[in-house]
Amino acid sequence: MNEFIRGIKRGFPICLGYIPVSFTFGLIAVKMGFTPAQATLISLTNMASAGQFAGIRIIEGGAPYIELVITTFVINLRYFLMSLSLSQKVDPEMPFYKRAIMAYCITDEVFALASMEPDDVSFPFFGGLMLTPILGWTSGTLLGAIASNLLSPMLQGCMGIALYCMFIAIIIPPARKSRKVALAVVVAAALSCIFKYVPGINMLSKVGGGGWAIITAAILGAAICASIKEVKRRRKAALAAERSAQ
Amino acid sequence: MNYLYICMFLMFLTTYLIRVIPIGFVRKKMENLWIQDFIYYIPFCVLSAMTFPDVFYSTTATGVEPHISVSAVVATAVALLMAWKNQGLVRVALVAVLVAIAVELVMPMLF
Fold it and tell me: Hey, is the C-beta of B58 within 8 angstroms of any chain A C-beta?
């Protein structure tokens, strides 16, 4: 029970941060012709920011199902990596149904906070962690959908930055503490910029709503950092072997 | 009408399967040190790649083709500084939105 409460406390800031973002989603969805109930249902069943924004754009265009599935798949593929990472942070004995419940709310922010936990993540903790963000995400959508005619386009636009600044607030403090993390952040950001701006390579950011570019930048960035560490580890081991031989 | 609900179901199904397959079926702790490091770096890399450079385009009014805007750049700089000073998620996000609004309001007066 204590773990559950601790999860709720950790998750609450995410809930607050989700409100402006889901509010924006609600606004846009209604503008595109969805009803507030439909917009809220999409938020409740997806819990995915970028994927939802891209999804409603595609549905509005009346595209074929396969296009919707492929775009959703590519934009949300990063959750596969996060889920894989979380699989290493839960008790190997945890039953499938608990894993299936946790999987529903592997969002960028919930995952980020769970992965910053020093120890394994328990089911009650994760349950508490996901509870208020789900409420914030769905109720924010509903509010935005209802209030869609009250806000100026400028205000709507400015709210779009909230999501990214949450990411910044999640990654910068650990990067300040650890040089390895700082390197990972810089390498991934640089790769992501290369995929967007370098002619030829920038094809990657033009398909699948930018999803491929993000996945590729993240996988390459993590692989580079892990390899640098591997080289250092081997060098250290070689040095230690040399010393013990003398 | 049916098209819409089939689409909504497909979005849900695709998103959920992506999330449930790894955590639902990978039960072994990975032994390989390289893979452990790789998985350790993944969250930082994903979030960083998602944020940059897209954050600089993020204050464009909805329905307008995204472009780099002064308000986004200024608000990002403020957010980075606040995050460096270990400020919490909500405070950083909220101040960044307010800064972006302030810049959007002041800019037309200057030029």
Answer: yes
| Confidence bin at B81 (pLDDT 50/70/90) | very high
Chain A residue closest in CA terms to B75: A161
Encode pLDDT of A8-45 as tens digits: 999 999 998 888 888 888 887 887 789 999 999 999 99
Record: contact B14-A175, CB cut-off 8 A = no
Structure tokens given for A223: 């692989």
pLDDT at B31 over 90: no
The structural domains of chain A, with segments of one domain joined by +, span 2-162, 178-246
Q: Which residues contact A2 (CB under 8 A, 6 or more apart)?
A: none
Q: Does the beta-carbon distance from A59 to B4 stay under 8 Å?
A: yes
What angle (nearest 5°) sits at the alpha carbon of residue B90, between those of residues A195 and A102? 75
Place of tokens 């508490």: A128
Do the Cβ atoms of B46 and A214 come within 8 Å? yes
Give the Cα separation of A146 and A140 in Å (integer). 10
For chain B, where are the E strands, in sequence order? none
User: Any chain A CB within 8 A of the CB of B84?
Assistant: yes
Q: What distances in angstroms separate CA B66 from CA A23, A161, B69, B87, one per listed residue?
A: 19, 12, 9, 28
Listed range (A77-91, A110-124, A177-191, B28-42) with the worst mean pLDDT: B28-42
Residues A102, A114: contact at Cβ < 8 Å?
no
Q: What burial letters (b/e) apply to A9-33, b meaning 16+ CB within 10 Å?
A: ebbbbbbbbbbbbbbbbbbbbbbee
Q: What is the pLDDT of residues A136-162, one digit of tens each?
A: 999 999 999 998 777 777 887 787 788
Residues 6+ apart with CB under 8 A from B76: A161, A164, A165, A168, B55, B56, B96
DSSP state of A30: H
Residues in chain A closer than 8 A to B39 (CB atoms): 84-85, 88, 222
- Which residues are CB-contacts of A156 (< 8 A; sequence separation ≥ 6)? A24, A27, B61, B62
pTM of the model as a whole: 0.76
